[in-house]
Amino acid sequence: MNSGVKGPNVLDRLVTLFSKLPGIGKKSAGRIVYHILDSNPMLAENIANELSLLHKTIRRCSICGGFTENNPCSVCSDSGRDHSIICVVESAQDMRIIEDAREYPGVYHVLGGLIAPLEGVGPANLSIDKLISRLDGSHQEGENVKELILALNPTVEGDTTALYLQKLLKDFPVEITRLASGMPVGGNIEYIDKLTLSRSFRGRVKI
Amino acid sequence: MNSGVKGPNVLDRLVTLFSKLPGIGKKSAGRIVYHILDSNPMLAENIANELSLLHKTIRRCSICGGFTENNPCSVCSDSGRDHSIICVVESAQDMRIIEDAREYPGVYHVLGGLIAPLEGVGPANLSIDKLISRLDGSHQEGENVKELILALNPTVEGDTTALYLQKLLKDFPVEITRLASGMPVGGNIEYIDKLTLSRSFRGRVKI
Question: Which one of A61, A63, A156, B51 is at 20 to 30 Å from A131 when CA atoms are compared?
Fold first, then answer.
């Protein structure tokens, strides 16, 4: 619905803004904005208030690089966690997802991306120097790291980055592991792709 | 990632708010909020500003019930449109979608829902009185309506509402039609459900 006046109105502008968010197309954006318009005005106000607070209150943790309100973040400053294991993730969001599973007892390191030459992302663009400083003890926190778990996506970029880190860090007295890749729980051999199936074979475990 | 402090932080609160919007689950909400956090702060600010403007600037059109900045809306106040045809839609969003197709030359009437007894929505909850006032000429605008196109979803609720309106308005000198229901363009007979196929047969057109 174009307003009769020249420029797009607030409704159209919001639809355009929402449609640029990941996973939201033009149609879903319209649905969302009309839903907000149909809802109690408090909803729009709440989202607006939180959004304007977002960048003011959330910062990068100076140790792991995750998003946090307080620096260092609650994970890095938690003495109950195992600081001898660092889980290396691509993004702060991956860190959140692993945290939500409540399975992992150690700390994190956010790379801020994966090596992707075609997109112009090289090792220098990632937070690798900081990772090394956490391993060689030059970091103020003096973590005594024994294991590095590379929790990177099983994609070309993830594989490349894992290989790069493995070679780069081979002289450090630290064990480097990577998350198991294979069939998802509840999956069906019939529908699994060939690459995943072959990885499942190579990574088979004794029962 | 739970912040060490008691309550959820702005990040968690935003994820919860976004996950309540239509079509967005907990995971997509996380992806969206982290995307906003990773983007230029202007993005969050723009969305926040537009959201706080939304309810202040957008109102219901007093004639058709669609959302608009100016009352009456650009469609109702457009003398170039055919005011003798009213397209009856469930929601302002459906009105937007039909407008975006740039095919329909007439005006609209937003019912604000469909008759759904199980959900407690009866005819009295819909904008039917207003529709009648547009037909019997008691409305200030004095539209001379010749056709009413019921553009309601081909669902039980849509069918019920169409039937109800058809009976209610049978004495008005107005032709009542309904959008054709049948196979979507590009569809495949093999994959079409039985009900749609039978509607396609009943609604077959001479070529």
Answer: A156
